[in-house]
Amino acid sequence: MPDSVFRATALSSPYDRIDRLPVTVLLENVRSLYNVGAFFRTGDAVRIQKMLLAGITAAPLDPRIVKTALGAEQTVAWERVHAAPGALAGLRASGWQLAAIETSLQAVDLFDWQPSFPVCVAFGHEVAGLSAAVLAACDVHVRIPTLGLKQSLNVATAGGVVLYELLRKYRALGERPL
Predict the structure, then answer these.
(1) Confidence class of residue 27 from pLDDT cuts 50, 70 and 90?
(2) Which candidate among 1, 15, 113, 163 keeps its CA 20 to 30 Å from the CA of 100?
(3) What is the pLDDT of residues 65-89, one digit of tens each?
(4) Is residue 3 part of a domain?
(5) Residues spanned by the domain of 66
């Protein structure tokens, strides 16, 4: 079956109204180029609006990002930001909710969180997490439930979990009767 026929058949009405998912992803100090590429690929899959790259996070010009992104680095809008808190302040001024994806004492469970769209989700360094400034700038901290002993996920895997949960929640908004 040609890809276009499959897409038209498989991705029917629940997704027809979603041109772009009103989600921006901020990556702060994500050091692994492969993780950055994986974020681009997942971002393309759910059609996010934009990717913001801060700190040591590499831009999608490196062949290792391109290898993992498989062309998604060309379909997802992205921007290098020099000060993550400043970029977040600009989004807030435009009406965006800001969410830190981080395990903290005040974090709410991902599946209980009711995001306000548009929303920016921030992911941080694979070991150190998000900076204190970014954590302070966010409206809400959201944790992914982890039941295992390690209590953590790879940052790109966490991104996939969060982005698909946001897609599910956004789709559900369109299914409610008016």
Answers:
(1) very high
(2) 15
(3) 877 877 678 888 999 999 999 999 9
(4) no
(5) 17-173
